[in-house]
Specification:
The complex is a heterotrimer of chains A (about 325), B (about 325) and C (about 375). Chain A has twelve helices and 13 strands. Chain A is of the alpha/beta class and about 325 residues long. Chain A has an eight-stranded mixed beta sheet with strand order 7-8-9-3-10-11-13-12, with helices on both faces. The longest helix of chain A has 18 residues, at about 195-210. The radius of gyration of chain A is 21 Å and the shape is globular. Chain B is an alpha/beta fold and about 325 residues long. An eight-stranded mixed beta sheet of chain B has the order 6-7-8-3-9-10-12-11, sandwiched between helices. In chain B, strands 2-1-4-5 form a four-stranded antiparallel beta sheet, with helices on one face. In chain B, a hairpin with a 5-residue loop joins strand 11 (about 315) and strand 12. Chain B is globular, with a radius of gyration of 21 Å. The mean pLDDT of chain B is about 90. Chain C has a four-stranded antiparallel beta sheet. Chain C has 13 helices and four strands. Chain C has about 375 residues and is an alpha+beta fold. Chain C has helices at about 10-20, 25-35, 35-55, 55-60, 160-195, 200-215, 215-225, 235-265, 270-275, 280-315, 330-335, 340-345, 350-370; strands at about 80-85, 85-100, 110-130, 135-145. Classes of the chains: A alpha/beta (about 325), B alpha/beta (about 325), C alpha+beta (about 375). Chains A and B meet through helix 7, helix 8, helix 9, helix 10 and helix 11 of A and helix 5, helix 6, helix 7, helix 8 and helix 9 of B.
């Protein structure tokens, strides 16, 4: 496996009417080719914003931190994403090396252009295919994602397809340019469970086949357990825990991850009480000082949690958490 | 069942006219068809189904917020007995006090132009249940405290609150008239996991404290498994299986219920790909397939399933299901 | 990296509480105040409206033929000054104008400034009588004891353009107000019925609305202008124009009212109220109307400049108000001759006011719309 992307010290703030909001705070991770990383978090955790930063897709009022460094390792050498300025330069990344699929597929298809035409157009922009070849590839892709009668679907519009079909068509479109990295932002959240299971299966197959890296964003730990190789848990813009999927789900190290798992209803033991995490997710305008989670933490270990941002410390091989429970005297004020 | 049910539906059907062309007969959406359900008082009854299964419409019909096309809905709480299909104006007004709805979206369900106090007080004022403003305030405070809302916050507008808090306001509004029966329509679906558990626990606590009966509509089987005592599974407007929660989750009989359960992504990373996957998608309710509604996706469908619609039959104590082949499938 | 909270906790708490207990109206106002262009527009608008309303008082002369300066036709502006070659004075003054026709001037009337004779500007001088709010006055904010002061010059009949401009603003705003009012009442009733009941009522009303929208404005106006008898007084003409504008303007507003109602009545909180047994009256009063007011105000402000523009356009093509009446359209029409362009550029001063007025309306309207839009919230 080779390194695909390195994200170092990603910090992102937004200038809003109410003041400057920190959406992502000092997040670092990396991904190998062919690896699926689950990015878990609740609303306001900054998981989508983080993923969009990899393509610099955030709105104009976004301010990236000075230390932020995102390196994409492509066949012809590394690309420093932060240094890309205009749309022309970004083409390498957007829709080229990185593709994106959303929760609401309807939003990513132009309503008045047929699905096939959109796929062809995208291929013409990013590859040197002829039009005929592009059409051929598109139909092949539609077939590959399990859309029946792909050549007929090719001429249809997004509104003519059902929710599951639309999601498949979007995956087909995202993969037709053979991206190195696929960002899937809650791709199954709007779907029914039976359809969700189909889409998850499809994505798993595609990883094995295409060998690309996937960043799978979701709030659903079950979906993560079924798809991801490793997991990063985010809370209020901070990475709180990172590790292999087995480690994080079976031996969660951070109190927040533990809280999430305890709050999740599962079918294994339907009599187990649900334990909510006390309190509400603070508004991004009122980010707590110190450890962002200390206002709700049930393993609060004294004043240090409220004043010092915990450093990320190794709990085990390939398993790290940002919590004072593990750190030595570390942490920044 | 020893107790008389609080809500009984008898062959309930809800059909919505579709806005079609001017010529020809108006097409109908058969949102709910021939549904028989009995909800015992004090029960936390779960209603499960995918989108388009008609679960929301069924819930609304029980509140007389959807037209009852055929069949009946009976309500009986020991004080009054109503047949919802033919309620007089006065009776309907009284029924509104006894049955209430909690919505899914905690943002759309609260008017942005009213303070929390006014939102919770609205049912009281509309129904004329209190005589003075002081009495209304008293009642609002009482119910707000029960829903763990800070009394200080009553002056605030909804925009000041997070999703979980808004949902608690929504719950307080539904409870303020002192209802017996509450329909909670996907009431935790829009909430974050860490908050969802809190709202579920609140609903359970309130139910026990006030002796309420809940119809809990959800697409999330794991949530239903944890809070409900009875579960009904719907598919395309029909009930396919009803049973006490334990029975249903330990031994689902209907192929659809089985598929639904196995489609839930397991939290065990080593338990991948074992699930029995369902092909295709739920057909449109405007154009349902003949015979058993599930036959287009059912792996066990035979010719009989394609022509004859199965009826709900008993498969054990309080366990009913609608499948032609459940006995064969159980023995094999 | 930690965010430090240095501010006083109690102040913070109060500010937070103020935000949480702020009504939608207050929130809109807060957002509106943050927009500089809209705030400037609002101030300009307030000043213009007030100066329009109080035009008879703060302008020195009657803008009609009775207040004309017959000795100073097409006269250039006379600007008060404090100093000249003969020294300075604390009170601003203008020079006396003398008109003469003699052999020296080739028997043409020629106006000359007599720089020896100063006319001092006084405040609260008695002048032409006028009516304001139904009462008779004759005091003007400023003027001269004798002679005339023309800040913006005079027109071909010697009427003071300064006085005319502000009276014109008043007239145009009045036409706009009546027009908008009629359009709005119609729009509320028609759009309201359409949106509240929906179904076939909605469909048929929409058909009528669309039919009205297709009527081309200019030919209609021309037909109407031909219909207006010459014997009508300027007041009658004025009301007629306002009413016509109102009857033409309603469909767009009605459509917006309807759309808003259709979305609003399907809101879950409206259903919640209905499930409590709320009557249509309660739903309209408690939910629909309040949800509306902000949009109504925005719509009013946005549609206002169009009314003023229509009035102006009508008067400009000679179909609306005619010269003796002071409206912005009439003033605009007066600048169209080549003579004005070459020799009497001060005729353009009212045009500047017209542009400023319309711009102010547009800025305020835009600002209000952005402030009232719940999606305008920049929450990432």
């Amino acid at each position: 496996m080779s390194r695909l992307i390195d994200v170092e010290n990603l910090t992102l703030q937004f200038d809003t009417d109410e003041g400057r909001i920190t959406a992502v705070d000092d997040v670092s991770f990396s991904l190998e080719a062919g690896e699926v990383m689950g990015l878990v978090g609740e609303s306001g955790s900054g998981k989508s914003v983080t993923a969009k930063s990899l393509m610099k897709l955030n709105p104009r009022n976004a301010i990236y931190g000075e230390d932020t460094k995102i390196t994409l390792h492509l066949d012809d050498g590394p690309v420093d994403v932060m240094s890309l300025q205009n749309d022309r330069e970004m083409k390498v990344v957007r829709g080229g090396a990185i593709s994106l699929i959303f929760q609401e597929p309807m939003a990513s298809f132009a309503p008045a252009i047929s699905i096939g035409d959109q796929m062809v157009e995208q291929l013409l922009i990013h590859t040197d295919f002829s039009k005929a070849r592009a059409k051929e590839v598109s139909v092949e892709m539609l077939d590959r994602v399990g859309i029946s009668d792909p050549s007929a679907r090719f001429g249809q519009y997004a509104f003519e397809l059902s929710g599951g079909m639309r999601q498949r068509a979007m995956i087909a479109m995202a993969l037709s340019t053979k991206p190195k990295l696929l960002i899937a932002d809650e791709p199954t959240t709007a779907l029914d469970v039976t359809i969700q299971a189909q889409v998850i299966d499809l994505m798993k197959d595609l990883v094995t086949e295409f060998g690309m890296g996937i960043i799978f964003i979701t709030h659903d730990l079950g979906v993560i357990a079924q798809t991801a190789d490793k997991v990063a848990v985010m809370y209020l813009g901070r990475l709180v825990e990172q590790g292999t999927v087995r480690d994080v789900i079976r031996r969660p190290a951070h109190p927040y991850t533990r809280g999430l798992l305890a709050a999740l209803p599962t079918l294994d033991d339907i009599d187990a009480p649900l334990t909510p995490i006390p309190g509400d997710i603070p508004s991004p305008l009122e980010r707590p000082s110190g450890c962002v989670y200390h206002t709700r933490c049930q393993e609060f270990i004294g004043a240090r949690c409220a004043t010092h941002v915990p450093a990320f410390s190794q709990v085990d091989t390939d398993h790290a958490a940002g919590c004072h429970l593990y750190g030595s005297a570390g942490g920044t004020e | 069942m020893s107790q008389k049910p609080l809500i009984t539906t008898k062959d309930l059907s809800v059909h919505y006219p579709l806005r079609g062309g001017l010529i020809g007969p108006t097409p109908f959406v058969r949102a709910v068809e021939n549904v028989n359900i009995e909800i015992a008082p004090g029960s936390f009854y779960g209603l499960v189904g995918e989108s388009g299964s008609g679960k929301t419409t069924l819930g609304r019909a029980m509140l007389r917020a959807a037209p009852i096309s055929q069949g009946e809905v009976l309500f009986e709480d020991g004080e009054v007995e109503y047949s919802l299909k033919n309620l007089g104006k006065k009776e309907l007004k009284d029924y509104r006090k006894r049955a209430q709805l909690i919505f899914q979206d905690p943002y759309a369900a609260l008017s942005p132009r009213m303070t929390v106090r006014d939102i919770i007080a609205e049912p009281l004022e509309v129904m004329g249940m209190t005589k003075s403003r002081a009495e209304t305030d008293e009642r609002v405070r009482e119910i707000a405290a029960k829903c763990r809302l800070n009394v200080e916050h009553l002056r605030r507008f909804p925009h000041a609150f997070s999703g979980g808090q808004r949902q608690r306001i929504s719950i307080a509004r539904a409870l303020v008239s002192g209802p017996k029966f509450i329909v909670a329509d996907e009431s935790v679906a829009a909430l974050d996991v860490s908050i969802q558990a809190d709202v579920l626990n609140l609903l359970k606590a309130i139910q026990e404290e006030m002796g309420l009966t809940f119809l809990f509509i959800s697409h999330d089987l794991s949530v239903v498994a944890h809070v409900c005592d009875h579960v009904a599974v719907m598919y395309l407007g029909r009930l396919v299986e009803t049973a006490p929660t334990r029975t249903l989750f330990s031994g689902p009989r209907h192929p659809y219920t089985k598929a639904l359960l196995s489609a839930i992504p397991s939290l065990d990373p080593d338990d991948r790909g074992k699930a029995q996957k369902l092909e295709g998608e739920i057909p449109s309710p405007t154009n349902p397939p003949p015979g058993c509604k599930f036959q287009t996706r059912c792996p066990f469908a035979v010719d009989r399933c394609r022509v004859e619609e199965p009826l709900l039959e008993s498969a054990g104590t309080e366990h009913n299901l609608a499948c032609h082949r459940w006995k064969e499938l159980a023995s094999s | 990296m930690t965010e430090t909270n240095i501010y006083d906790a109690s102040v913070d708490q109060n500010a937070k509480d103020a935000y949480f207990t702020a009504s939608q109206g207050q929130l809109i106002w807060t957002r509106f105040k943050k927009q500089k262009a809209a705030m400037v527009g609002a101030w300009v608008l307030v000043i213009l409206v007030l100066s329009g309303i109080f035009a008879p008082f703060h302008t020195p002369y009657d803008p009609t033929i009775s207040g004309r300066d017959k000795d100073y036709l097409n006269g250039a502006p006379t600007i008060p000054q404090f100093c000249d070659d003969n020294g300075c004075s604390a009170r601003p003054f203008v020079y006396a104008l003398e008109r003469e026709r003699s052999i020296k001037t080739n028997f043409r009337w020629v106006t000359t400034k007599n720089t020896e004779k100063r006319l001092y500007v006084h405040f609260f001088v008695e002048g032409d009588p006028y009516k304001m709010f139904g009462l008779n006055f004759s005091t003007h904010l400023f003027g001269l004891d004798a002679g005339y002061l023309h800040l913006f010059g005079t027109d071909s009949t010697g009427k003071d353009i300064y006085s005319r401009t502000f009276h014109a603003i008043n007239t145009s705003l009045a036409v706009g107000t009546i027009g908008v009012f009629i359009a709005f009442v119609l729009a509320l009733i028609i759009g309201g019925i359409s949106g509240f009941y929906g179904g076939w009522v909605d469909s048929s009303i929409q058909m009528v609305t669309d039919a009205v929208r297709t009527i081309p404005a200019i030919p209609l106006f021309m037909a109407l202008a031909a219909f207006i008898p010459d014997t009508w007084s300027s007041e009658e003409r004025f009301f007629f124009i306002s009413i016509i504008l109102g009857f033409i303007g309603w469909p767009t507003l009605a459509r917006r009212v309807r759309t808003h109602l259709l979305t609003e009545r399907n809101q879950e909180y409206v259903l919640a109220a209905k499930l409590c047994g709320a009557s249509p009256a309660h739903v309209i009063r408690k939910h629909l109307l309040p949800s509306f007011t902000s949009y109504i105000i925005v719509d009013l402000v946005i549609s206002f400049p169009y009314m003023v523009l229509s009035e102006t356009a009508l008067s400009f093509i000679g179909l609306g108000l005619k010269d003796p009446v002071n409206s912005l359209g009439v003033m605009l029409q007066n600048v169209t001759s080549a003579d004005v362009l070459l020799n009497y550029q001060w005729y353009f001063i009212p045009v500047i006011f017209f542009i400023v007025l319309v711009m102010a309306f547009v800025f305020v309207g835009d600002g209000l719309r952005d402030a009232a839009d719940p999606y305008g919230d920049t929450k990432k």
